[in-house]
Amino acid sequence: RIIKKSFFLLPTICIVNALSLNSYASEKTDLPKICLVLDKGGKDDRSFNQSAYEGFIKAQKELKISQESKYVTVTNDNQSQDFIRSFSGGNCGLVIAVGFNNAYSVGKIAKKYPNQKFALVDSTIDEPNIRSISFQEHEGSFLVGAIAAMKSKSGNVGFIGGMEIPLIKRFGLGFKAGAKYINPKIKVTET
Q1: Which terminal residue of the chain, N or C, has fewer Cβ atoms less than 10 Å from its own Cβ?
Q2: What is the pTM assigned to this prediction?
């Protein structure tokens, strides 16, 4: 759990620092406003969204960002564009969108707001005002697969991905590679 939190807290804090947000702060306040758009899982999903939210709260406490910074959670596909568009009108120094479900909206809206700075987590879009943040998720799942193979007494291990999307497939491939690295004859069941 600590590794998972650190996995996202550090990049979140680094994003805020790396983009030199003080240059985007308004004349009235010296502190930039950050707007975070969480994916459907919400701030309590025990995964990427929760880590992003916790990093956001930590940044509000420890970094020089506006206390007017805010976050929202997308609950349906239509909200993604609405939230990102509403944050892109100049009130936010940086709009951070978490999750591949927000990628289309960020890509579309970033073109209409070329002066707005965006950070997109878990997807890659090549636009000058978007910083894409992706992870080598297969590396962590390789280790988990290796540990599973070491602990297996039956020569069988399983991976439950939950969704048929490229991200989860990469997790699965890493898991399988880790298990096979330890025991080339191990049976890996995936769903």
Answers
A1: N
A2: 0.71
